[in-house]
Amino acid sequence: MQQLFYIHLVIVRQAIRKDAAALAVLLTQLGYPSPQENLDFVLGKIETYSAETYRLLVGEVDGDVVGFISLHWFQIFHSPGRMGRITAFCVHERVRSKGIGQYILTEAEKFLVAQGCTSVEVTSNLRRLQTHDFYLKHGYAETSKRFIKSLVPKQG
């Protein structure tokens, strides 16, 4: 018996305001506040990430936003070319491990090359072991340690 496979077409495009609710849900899957609390935040970010050195891309399948990747690119002092940075990346839980994340990542990398980037970096929470494996599988190397310091006092 012949087995048939149906491949969904993934469209990667710039996020627009109507994507805010879907993006808020995806942020919750990353561990951020509930979609309703995130909605105004996301709407503001969509505007910010339309700026000159930022971009928020979504992956859409059959008209539904199923993933996003946010990008920033900048010149670095010690190296020629620009550095691209993935600041957030999520594929909806119900469609993970189907090649959608790989496609979104590949399209994001092409976009960064078009912006003059010669490399791209990403940070990932220490607890996200599957995510680390994903990046390693797609040619990323673990090369440094990240240090963070809050510059604003904690509230309450």
From TrEMBL:
Limits of the N-acetyltransferase domain: 10-156
Pfam families: Acetyltransf_1 (PF00583)
Molecular function (Gene Ontology), one example: acyltransferase activity, transferring groups other than amino-acyl groups
Keyword annotations: Acyltransferase, Transferase
Gene3D superfamilies registered for this protein in UniProt: 3.40.630.30
SUPFAM superfamilies xref list: Acyl-CoA N-acyltransferases (Nat)
Acyltransferase found in the keyword field: yes
Coiled-coil residue spans: none
Presence of the UniProt keyword Cell membrane in the record: no
PANTHER family linked to this entry: AMINOALKYLPHOSPHONATE N-ACETYLTRANSFERASE-RELATED (PTHR43877:SF2), AMINOALKYLPHOSPHONATE N-ACETYLTRANSFERASE-RELATED-RELATED (PTHR43877)
Protein name: GNAT family N-acetyltransferase
Classification of source organism: Bacteria, Pseudomonadati, Bacteroidota, Cytophagia, Cytophagales
